[in-house]
Amino acid sequence: MESKTGLKGNVEYCLGMTHKKDKMNLTTWDVRYSIGIDELDDHHRYLVLLINIIYESFVNEVQDCDLAKIFNELTRYTEYHFCTEETLMRDCNYPDYDSHKALHDQFAKRLQDIQAGFLCNKSLVSFELLTFLNSWLLTHVTKTDIQFGKFIAAEQKKFAA
Ligand SMILES: [Fe+2]
Ligand SMILES: [Fe+2]
Questions:
Q1: For the whole model, what pTM was predicted?
Q2: What CATH number does residue 127 fall under?
Q3: CA of 85 to the centre of ligand 2 (A)
């Protein structure tokens, strides 16, 4: 279990990077990524931000230990986000819960493997890895999470009628 100081340090490091001028982005947040659930949209926005920070760090050839810090935060926050999303789905008896959770589990495992590579000093970030992370997230949000957003909107309509 990571110490609070370590976690706080990682979050501060990531947020500090957002204040830099001339940022390079792999993805710019866009309204088409919104699924209509504010809390989850905020989470997705932060995940896009973290991937952008990793991308910028990669392009600027920052040290592996600094990249590992951001990866740590990406892994931690992704797990937190998946847990929040899955709790909401269970609370609403979402019918596609199992298949959606299976996609989360696969991606979380992949992130853990990448992070383990950093800990063993074996893994280096590549452009292929960054495009994989980026496209997984955006595809998941716009194809899978959006279905949950639509389900919630339909449920709310039922109750409002
Ligand atoms: Fe999801
Ligand atoms: Fe999500």
A1: 0.83
A2: 1.20.120.50
A3: 6
